[in-house]
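Homework help board

Subject: predicted structure for assignment chain

Our instructor gave us this sequence and asked us to write out the predicted structure in token form, then describe one feature. I got the tokens but I'm not sure how to describe them. Can anyone check?
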Amino acid sequence: MALTGFAAGLLIGTRLAGWPVERFGSRLVIRVGTPILAMALLRPALARDLASLTVALVVFGVAAGMLDVAMNAQAVAVERAHRRPLMSSIHATWSIGLLAGAGAGAGAASLGVPPVIHFALAAVVVAGASFVPLRGLLALHAPEFSQPHAVDVPVRLRRVSVALPLALIGFASFFGEGAAADWSAVYLDGNLGTSEGVAALGFVAFSLGMAGARLAGDRLVSRFGNTGVVRAGGLVGAAGLVLGLAVPASAVAVAGFALLGMGLAPVVPLTFSVAGNTRYGRTGTALGWVVTVSYLGAILGPVIIGLTAERTSLRLALGIPAVLALAIAAAARFVEPPDSPSSAGGSEGPTPYP
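My token output:
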């Protein structure tokens, strides 16, 4: 129930972020929003009952959702300034941070650190990031990306035709991420009979595979282009997960989740990058829609996996992310930048940046 509050807040935050990002710029939203996020982080630890915990997580989710859109808009601005792919590396730091946070949480729990102290220390770290490091954020404003180009069809319809495929691709990728986060350990423990320690390796392998692939993602995009990287990623993720589910061995299953993480790694960064560069809507607005729909995948994915597993089996239910990974590969052409030769009917090549 309480975690549903966080999910609701996250969706609200991503929907609200477009206007302040466009009005004040991603730099200001990040610098103001980061200390707010730090303060919101304390509230769940101080909650006295389910109702107050749910409200605290809603507030935290709203702050996190708004910052997510603003940070991705800032990353788009950085890519434009450097005129080369950078989004994958930026998202790699998120994956590394996720691993660090999970490790810190596990360490605090094993040492018996009270949640209030643990959350307070985390809040200090987050708030500290809003001072010196965030001063280097770009304050770019590119008016040519704020006004739609003249087209033969209504601009809103064109914007939907560009953003909707990106949103669905992001949804499919986050679906797989949510499935790995919530069900990999359950599968290894319940279906393959591993120990709890080995079961935890499923998501660790997924996260390491994703972080490593994202660190290499920008170089791959420069060489093979968005379409080639996303298509290959979808195929690798699908093949890896199918292999891990088909062979009833824990080592193969862990390797399968690692390949799923590697395959999905470039999908969301490239999807968000293209959404931020669409020429049929403002950066914050278009990006906000794509981020919102994408996060629905992470929220609904584990639920759909669970409901399907109840009616069939967990092994069959975990095949859904594999099917969605294949769908990502089939739809890879929609993740091509708006100004690329291939999107205009020419030959594919390295990703251009306006």
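Reply (TA_rk): Your tokens look well-formed. For the description, you could write something like this. The chain has one domain: 2-135+154-336. That's the kind of observation they're looking for.
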